[in-house]
Amino acid sequence: MMRHGWALRWLAALAVVTIASTVPVAAAEAESGPSAPSSSDRTGEEVRKREYWLDELGIRSAWKQATGKGVKVAVIDTGVDGNHQDLSGNVLDGKDVSGGGSPDGWKSVGAEPEHGTLVASMIAGHGHAGHGGDTQTGGEPGQGLGMIGIAPEANVVPISVWLGTQNPGNVSVEDQIPRAVEEAVDSGAKVVNLSVGSSKTDWPESWDKAFQYAQDRDVVVVASAGNRGSGVTQVGAPSTIPGVVSVGGVDRQGKTSWDSSAQGISLAVAAPSEDLIGALPNNKYGLWSGTSASAPMVSGVLALMRQKYPDESSAQIIRRLIDTAEDRGDKGRDPQYGYGMVDPMAALSRDEDVSGTRKNPLGSVESWAKVHRRADPTDEPSEPPAEEHRAGERIAAVAAPEPAPGNHVNLLLPVGLIAAVAGWMWLLASGTVARLRRVLGSPPHPPMRILAESLGWTRRRTKAERGEKKERRSDFWGPRQ
């Protein structure tokens, strides 16, 4: 029952903010800026002009350092169209963990099946040649038309998950995500992109093992922070999981995006999240926005870094990423930009000493769980239930057992000892007084009588009442009347 409840809550949460808004380019022709090509015009001649981040982030300059060649990036999403003209050859066989997709992860599934292809094109799109065989100029990677990604020579491993609607494969979201992460790691990917999120900051305990599995095997996991436009105001899981590179969004002016980026203390870096374009299944293109696009930008930069620094660990790569980010907002890490705006050229060329980094600077799931999972309540019984009696079994009546004798302390003993000692002391004192009276004579005013008379317990007797004679005599106490 507990697992079923988690699955329902996560299905509802992910259905809201998993997918960034997308608009087929045909519907956006009236927007300002470069005209968008019609969805029926699949040449993609205008797509490259809309990729403003190639220059504003310095991606074209970064390609002189690395192109992502030889690096695998797993895309945990709604499947990737590996036959798209801008992705063909860069998409490897992946996995489906939903039970509703194709075994290789290429089939588009879920509420917004185009989303996975958009994400993949942002990471590893390579464009395509036109009728004249157009290629990139200036020795840049890829071809001259269509969508080109941040790491155009990287490989994408699609891991398809079903999100947003009832899964015909009957695999819950709670179970899909950890299985997808483990499959991504086992595929040999060095970077894992999760452009999914939720309105919840916590996550199922079953996810701990999978995300720690990725960290233990030197894999960088990237996740989108979530979108305000979808009603998410704070960063949600999996972006809140320790060790995950959580990515927020900025607008065209480099300011935090109030429509397309949630905020939170777990943010690591920020990247553009508005006025973006990407590839859709069946050789189409679409405009989109949200941190679902910001995350694959950062995943692409990480692919470049993993090619440039093949001997650095995932912890060192993350340290280099956040140390070279351009600080925005409040000095240091803040809830709007994290450590700052991602800076690909600085990450690839700045002299940064990360040799001393041994642990992930963004934390560890294992360390977090030791503190926060210890006292978590559970529905499981603390002890296995007792065996039930079989039907028809006779149970003989047994008398209640007599209480076993114990070592009970007898309180009368110390009381008796005290009384005996007190009595002995009283007798001893009485005898001593009697002896002194016989030897010394009676004192004129016995102390007990004086005390009684002073307290008014009795009146002072006259000599006549005492029957004393008027003769004078003396003893040890002095003259007496």
Can you write the helix and strand succession as a string?
HEHHEEHEEEHEHEEEEEHHHHHHHEE
SSE-based structural type: alpha/beta
Q: Distance N terminus to C terminus? A: 105 Å
Largest sheet: spatial strand order: 3-6-2-7-8-9-10
Q: Could you estimate the helical fraction of the residues in percent?
A: 25-40%
Q: What's the tally of helices?
A: 13
Low-confidence stretches: 1-13, 15-20, 26-38, 381-395
What is the average per-residue confidence, as pLDDT, rounded to a whole number?
81
* Beta fraction: 5-15%
Largest sheet: 7 strands, parallel
Described by the principal axes of the CA atoms, the overall outline is elongated
Taking all Cα atoms into account, the compactness measure Rg is 43 Å
Number of strands: 14
Q: Your description of this structure?
A:
By secondary structure, the chain is of the alpha/beta class. It contains 13 helices and 14 strands. The protein has helices spanning 2-17, 53-56, 59-62, 115-124, 173-186, 206-216, 291-308, 314-323, 344-349, 365-372, 412-440, 447-454, 463-466, and strands spanning 22-24, 72-77, 95-96, 126-128, 145-148, 155-160, 191-194, 220-224, 245-250, 267-272, 276-280, 284-288, 473-475, 478-480. The strands form 4 sheets. It has a 7-stranded parallel sheet with strand order 3-6-2-7-8-9-10, with helices on both faces. A hairpin with a 3-residue loop joins strand 11 (276-280) and strand 12. Helix 4 runs parallel beside helix 7 (291-308) and helix 5 runs parallel beside helix 6 (206-216). It is elongated. The relative contact order is 0.12.
